[in-house]
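User: Some background: our group keeps a shared notebook of sequences we're curious about, and every so often someone picks one and asks for a predicted structure to add to the entry. Today it's my turn. The entry only has the sequence so far, pasted here. Could you supply the structure so I can complete it?
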Amino acid sequence: MNFFVIDSPFMRFMGKVGDILILNMLFVITSLPIVTIGTALSALYTVTLKIARGDEPSVIKEYFKAYRGNFKTATICWLIMALSGVFIMTDFYLIGLLDKSSVYTVFRLLLAVILGIWMLLFLYLFPYIARFENTCFNSLKNALFLSVAHIPLTIFMLVMSIGVLVLTLFSSRSFTISLIMWIFFGFAFLAYIYSLFLSRIFAKYE
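Assistant: Of course. Here's the predicted structure to add to the notebook entry:
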């Protein structure tokens, strides 16, 4: 077998690797304004979902097409998620200043539940926006529904996300190595892994 034939498994694999590298670079650059992270995530998933379905999209063209198309909904949803996330973390900090009483325990448990819901929403929200055209409110509602309706995948993505976060922050050395990986391919690779499973689930609702 000639590995360098354009249709060989090796060349298709290398083409996919190249797509992941380019896609990650686009995501990192377009996320830099911070306020555009939601739009960048939806564009990222638009392309990875297509790759996961076996398509061969023009990465740059498809990315910016999705970026423009999802801008309004994804930006509004991102601002809601970001502000609510800051609010939850601030509440955790303020409650930590209270005396360790029964009220403290109740508030901590309540916040833990709210944080759990926030995380479930975040896992599905931007992939959903990437695949379906809807309002921000309906996207939030349907993302929560999907996270509950597909518990095994939700647990897998949640554990994997927490795992890579822990590995990234484990030590200064792991942080440095992980930072390099995130910059070059990490975000797109993780989105692609999730997309392999999400594409099958989304197909049921089309």
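Suggested note for the entry: The radius of gyration is 19 Å. The mean pLDDT is 89.
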